[in-house]
Amino acid sequence: MSAPPEEFYSEERWQNWLDRIKDEDIDPENEDSARLLLNLQDDVAIAVAKIVTAYDDDDIDEETALDELTDIRETVLAEVEFEDEEKAMLIDGVQTSLLCVFYASEEYVAHGPAEDAEVEEYILEAKKAEAAEDLDSALGLVSAGGTRIIDGDELDMSVTEDMDYGLVTEWVNGLDSLLSAMSDPEVVEEDGE
Length: 193
Known about the structure:
The structure is a single chain. By secondary structure, this protein is an all-alpha fold. It has one domain. It has helices at residues 11-23, 31-56, 62-77, 85-111, 119-131, 135-150, 167-183. Helix 2 runs antiparallel to helix 3 (62-77), helix 2 packs across helix 7 and helix 5 (119-131) runs antiparallel to helix 7 (167-183). The longest helix is centred in the middle third of the chain and has 27 residues, at 85-111. The model has no long low-confidence stretch (mean pLDDT 90). It holds the Pfam family DUF2150. This is DUF2150 family protein. InterPro entries: UCP022079.
């Protein structure tokens, strides 16, 4: 049975992913483990992409889109209780990457795509803001880049090649999932099939 169209994502779906991660031996260096975490992230990004697409197609109005995005954000970004500290840190990393996906999609629905620069320019400016410890500005800049991705722009991941690992690179990782979701919003199977 398919879910009703108004249910883009559910707490149960998120919990199923968390249960799966709890039950498996997770090693981020292992390809299968890395893929599981990426699938979890992509699954959420796909749900977000479906909401903004439904909004763009006039299937849902702005208020409904923002309510749906808020519901997913609150579910996915809620603190996760894991006894295994390493798994908790990995989930935290996924949540950090997705933070920007939520901000970008909410900004897009409320105000449309940012128009001052290309995606990569926003990311480079965000890195400068992060270096200056202005994390709010950094998040806003990466999110602005994300609104352009939702609007159809591409993201050249090489923009992060020379960047030190940090919040901006985590957020850009989330935008990469959003880019994939916008171009191919196929559901990631929870059971890995």
